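[Discussion] Sanity-checking designs against the backbone

I'm trying to build intuition for which residues belong where. Below is a structure token string of 388 positions. I'd appreciate it if someone posts a full sequence so I can compare it with mine line by line.
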């Protein structure tokens, strides 16, 4: 694709209620939205970096500068070489000399994937799952629930979400708000609820035995029939995760640790995890994430697609990835109005009965839905245009 300009917008979406996790609290979801245009068409992408560098080193304001000063100029240079410019498969190598910043890189790749899909009439889900049996047409609805003050609050929240159609709940946990909260979730959601816990790295194997941070205490989760406990230890502790996995009956899933497809393979080989959370922005590439799902499918490794409190735009992309047949477990795929009171895309809804709802995978070209121009304008905090 030939590219004339890349527009970068910081949007700010107020959350209906603050989202609290072990790594911090989000009250307004700022994100960088990317719009690539040229003589061959246009495409949209979103950078998943959170407002603060608490999930990983990337954050919204930094991502805007990295895109403006380092990544977009390299993409424009690659797009001006030869007569056909750069395609989505060439984005990773065009940006390879910039170290790190996977979420900012993935935003540009997504914009090109969207542009190519629009140009050829191909839905993103088909681009990401080109081999038989191809993508699903709908995915099970799943929701992430942030840290809440008490087990009673958790029970009320879980009951409400199940009634809305969610059959899968991921509950954020932290030292002091873990076993009792998950027990309340299990009681409120019933035994058919697919229940996961996400610790965002808040526990330690070398903590004082019996202290709230002691990861050995997580063996108390073994009676709760969890799908998995996600990222119990810090991101770089693969060997400790393998040690913890030997002590727990509950499967361990990794998220923050899995920074590349090769690290994902190493983690599985070491026994540091037996379930994989796939996030394309964390891998720096939607195509690489689809490759991980291919490999999980080929090796019978359970996997699911995780979200990043995405705006409607990022959620469309995650729906397309979650339609991949390698995503064998329900992921973080929620109705868009579940978190935000206003959004850049028309709402995506959960359909179906309590506890068994699904969300339709977009079937239109590229991301499959148009952004709402008025909403985009309303929610834009800052706009930068980088031209060739
Ligand atoms: Mg996580």
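Best answer:
Here's mine. Compare freely.
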């Amino acid at each position: 694709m030939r590219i004339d300009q890349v527009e970068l917008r910081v949007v700010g979406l107020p959350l209906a209620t603050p989202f609290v996790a072990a790594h911090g609290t989000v009250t307004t979801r700022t994100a960088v939205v990317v719009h690539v245009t040229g003589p061959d068409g246009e495409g949209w992408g979103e950078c998943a970096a959170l407002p603060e560098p608490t999930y990983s080193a990337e954050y919204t304001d930094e991502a805007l500068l990295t895109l403006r000063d380092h990544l977009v100029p390299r993409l424009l240079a690659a797009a001006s070489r030869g007569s056909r410019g750069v395609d989505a498969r060439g984005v990773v190598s065009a940006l390879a000399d910039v170290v790190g910043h996977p979420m900012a890189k993935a935003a540009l790749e997504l914009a090109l994937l969207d542009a190519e899909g629009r140009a050829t009439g191909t839905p993103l889900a088909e681009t990401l799952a080109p081999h038989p049996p191809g993508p699903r047409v709908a995915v099970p609805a799943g929701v992430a629930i942030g840290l809440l003050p008490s087990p009673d609050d958790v029970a009320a929240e879980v009951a409400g979400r199940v009634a809305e159609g969610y059959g899968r709940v991921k509950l954020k946990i932290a030292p002091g708000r873990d076993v009792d909260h998950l027990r309340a979730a299990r009681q409120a959601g019933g035994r058919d609820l697919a229940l996961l816990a996400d610790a965002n790295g808040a526990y330690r194997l070398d903590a004082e035995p019996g202290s709230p941070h002691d990861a050995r205490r997580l063996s108390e989760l073994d009676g709760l029939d969890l799908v998995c406990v996600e990222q119990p230890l810090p991101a770089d502790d693969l060997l400790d995760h393998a040690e913890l996995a030997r002590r727990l009956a509950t499967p361990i899933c990794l998220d923050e640790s899995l920074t590349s497809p090769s690290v994902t393979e190493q983690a599985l080989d070491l026994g540091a995890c037996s379930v994989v959370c796939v996030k394309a922005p964390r891998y720096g590439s939607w195509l690489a994430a689809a490759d991980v799902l291919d490999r999980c499918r080929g090796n019978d490794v359970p996997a699911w697609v995780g979200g990043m409190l995405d705006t409607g735009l990022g959620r469309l992309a995650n729906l397309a990835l979650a339609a991949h047949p390698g995503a064998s477990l329900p992921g973080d795929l929620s109705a868009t109005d579940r978190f935000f009171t206003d959004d850049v895309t028309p709402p995506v809804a959960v359909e179906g009965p309590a506890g068994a709802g699904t969300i339709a995978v977009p079937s239109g070209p590229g991301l499959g839905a148009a952004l709402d121009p008025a909403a985009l304008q309303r929610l834009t905090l800052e706009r930068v245009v980088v031209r060739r």
